[in-house]
Specification:
This protein is of the alpha/beta class and 227 residues long. It is built from 10 helices and 6 strands. The protein is 44% helix and 9% strand.
Length: 227
Amino acid sequence: MPIHALIFDFDGLMVDTETPALQSWQEIYAEYGVTLSVHDWAATLGANAGFDAHAHLVCLLRKRDPLLAERVITERTAILARRQARKDVLSADQPLLPGVAELLAEARAASLPCAVASSSSRRWVEGWLRRLDVYHAFATVVTADDVVATKPAPDLFLTAAARLGLPPAACLVLEDSPNGIRAARAAGCPVVAIPGAISRQVPLPPADLTLPSLAHTSLAALRQRFG
């Protein structure tokens, strides 16, 4: 089926917020003398559930210092707040990733509607889109606030396609994460994988096409490939 819309993931695809997300937790872990690997973190890429970094920290600490582990349990709220603040600082100056602005401009010139489908909150996603002056480029923005289940469930992509008034097979998904690719597949959307700084370090499920970045393609090339 010809492509009639583009559905963009946000974190890791449009902006590299995934590196700050992982780094902010790695810094917390380092304070307690343990490490968080990208492979442990991979379960959370593209999702808002599936891996509890604080619980994993507690588990690691129990093996070496049970009393410290109990203290970390009681300090959960403070640790989460401190980590979020650090993530915000590390994320603050992140630009649009290569090729995003150009592809959005091509879609606008071709009157091809675009959507965002993200497992993050509406406040997070829309705040970024407005800050980077691309909010106007999207016909709809679907976030964790709009669905019962986020990626790898198909709900976000099915909702985006429904809001666009199109069948999922006519909506090309652009994704960087394993959970996002699985969700697009489950929704019946064709999917292009563009691994990000973090997701390229872990195995990805099969996609219809894999690119090193959006700068390595164009709307015309995507339409030809999926037309």
